[in-house]
């Protein structure tokens, strides 16, 4: 047997010292395991697989634990067409039954031609009816803000929002539906000040004029051409006295002005038979104002649509410092007299 120093021998030399070659078989297997245990006991800080020989990689792969093979998947069961269709129908989610609600979308878009048509085209393709659309340039060059109000289900509106955001000239699309907003809408309305009776008769007379045959109308104009004052008298068949009609006008104008001021608006123009008022408020108050003044007779009205900005958070002291304490927290019941 060879003479060796235990601290300097490598694993191949150690096996060779025991008379074991690279390939061990039969009775040499037990001797190989004994030699390996002895070498590890003399080299506790060394890895038996680390060696500088040419077979180091082979020894490493042979001694390392190999991963378990992947499980063999069974063949899928043979489904009939009826079973497959039943499974597909069972796994298909039911359509949403949530009622459609009002959504407010705020689009930040590039200020260039054709953006409005592309945005409205996408919404129209999805079947949305736009309740309100306001677009205008901002304080930033080449940037416009577009406020869209539409009604639909949450999932469908979210898909439309993402599709709008994919457009090239669109910077971002924000959904302000659940956010606290400051909403404003401007209304211009021309209101009759002669009273509802005169308004109804005026509309009836206007329908009679528009229903006249064009040929007979030309003949009537050729026969008689009344002056403007005479024609205006035909619009008021009741034939009120001038002073009485004047008092009615001022009373109606006073009532219209009062209602307008109560809604934070103002009267912009006053003419002989009508006045123009301006009201800026949230959409629900605009609707209430229109219902309130409709008995006087609305000749014309124009609304700008909804404009909205999100409210900023209010930072201040915590609510615990200002919370009102209950009586049980202030008074100790154990200190009270009995009864």
TrEMBL record:
Q: In which pathway does it act?
A: Amino-acid biosynthesis; L-isoleucine biosynthesis; L-isoleucine from 2-oxobutanoate: step 1/4; Amino-acid biosynthesis; L-valine biosynthesis; L-valine from pyruvate: step 1/4
Keyword Cytoplasm found: no
PROSITE patterns (alphabetical): ACT (PS51671)
- Gene Ontology CC: acetolactate synthase complex; mitochondrial nucleoid
The biased composition feature labelled Polar residues covers: 48-61
Coiled-coil residue spans: none
Q: Which GO terms describe its biological process?
A: isoleucine biosynthetic process; L-valine biosynthetic process
Segment Disordered: which positions? 45-75, 313-339
Give the matching CDD domains: ACT_AHAS
The source's domain of life comes to Eukaryota
SUPFAM superfamilies listed in its UniProt record:
ACT-like (SSF55021)
Spell out the PANTHER family in the cross-references.
ACETOLACTATE SYNTHASE SMALL SUBUNIT, MITOCHONDRIAL
Q: Which family does it belong to?
A: Belongs to the acetolactate synthase small subunit family.
Please identify the protein, giving its name as recorded: Acetolactate synthase, regulatory subunit
Tell me the gene name.
ILV6
């Amino acid at each position: 047997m060879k003479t060796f120093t235990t601290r300097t021998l490598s694993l191949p030399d150690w096996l060779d010292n025991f008379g074991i070659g690279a390939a061990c078989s039969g009775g040499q297997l037990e001797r190989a395991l004994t030699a390996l245990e002895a070498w590890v006991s003399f080299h506790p800080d060394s890895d038996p697989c680390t060696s500088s020989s040419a077979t180091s990689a082979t020894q490493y792969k042979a001694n390392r634990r190999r991963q378990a093979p992947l499980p063999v998947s069974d063949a899928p069961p043979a489904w009939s067409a009826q079973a497959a269709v039943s499974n597909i129908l069972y796994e298909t989610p039911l359509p949403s039954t949530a009622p459609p609600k009002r959504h407010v979308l705020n689009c930040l878009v590039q200020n260039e031609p054709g953006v409005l048509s592309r945005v409205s085209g996408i919404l129209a393709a999805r079947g949305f009816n736009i309740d309100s659309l306001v677009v205008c340039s901002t304080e930033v060059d080449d940037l416009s803000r577009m406020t869209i109000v539409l009604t639909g289900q949450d999932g469908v509106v979210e898909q439309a929002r993402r599709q709008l955001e994919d457009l090239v000239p669109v910077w971002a699309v924000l959904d302000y539906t659940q956010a606290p907003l400051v909403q404003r809408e401007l209304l211009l309305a021309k209101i009759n000040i002669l009273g509802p009776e005169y308004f109804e008769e005026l509309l009836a007379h206007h329908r009679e004029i528009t229903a006249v045959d064009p040929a007979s109308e030309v003949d009537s104009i050729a026969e008689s051409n009344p002056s403007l004052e005479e024609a205006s008298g035909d619009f008021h068949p009741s034939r009120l006295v001038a002073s009485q009609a004047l008092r009615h006008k001022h009373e109606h104008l006073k009532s219209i002005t009062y209602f307008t001021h109560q809604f934070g608006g103002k009267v912009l123009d006053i003419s002989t038979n009508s006045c123009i008022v301006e009201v800026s408020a949230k959409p629900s108050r605009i609707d209430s104002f229109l219902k309130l003044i409709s008995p006087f007779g609305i000749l014309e009205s124009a609304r700008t649509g909804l404009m909205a900005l999100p409210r900023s958070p209010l930072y201040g002291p915590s609510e615990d410092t200002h919370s009102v304490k209950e009586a049980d927290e202030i008074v100790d019941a154990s200190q009270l007299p009995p009864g």
